[in-house]
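[Automated response] Your request has been received and processed.

Submitted sequence:
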Amino acid sequence: MASNHIVEFNHPGVPRSLRPDDPVRAQEQPPPQRGDRGEHGEIARNGKEALAALARHEAAGTLPDLVLMDVMMPEMDGLAAMREMRRRPAGKKLPIIALTAKAMPEDRERCLEAGANDYIAKPIDVEKLLSLVRVWLPK
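Generated structure:
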């Protein structure tokens, strides 16, 4: 499958994704790696930007295959953004993996209730994230 978007790491077989993230914390992360096939990651800095990106992709017919949603972001947090995504036709079946620094059982439940398909606590275990991505990517 040809793809022009991937998550922020370079891994074979990971198609397009949208990654809303807090820009302050994102600056502490290494920059997205580019694959040799011209892939690139798309990062929205907050929930509002994520919803705008989803609308753009829906209009262009290029919906992401997966969303990695940071829960704690400025302007509109990930929980509110996921709820709104699920209200939109383009977001009803879109796989969403919530990323959060909070690791309590009630935090996981809040993420799932807001519309996440799954949840992973920070710091991110890359192997666990890759496993979740494989589980939730459309077949």
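Summary generated for your ticket: Confidence is low (pLDDT under 50) at residues 1-15, 23-40. The chain has five helices and five strands.
If you did not submit this request, please reply to this message.
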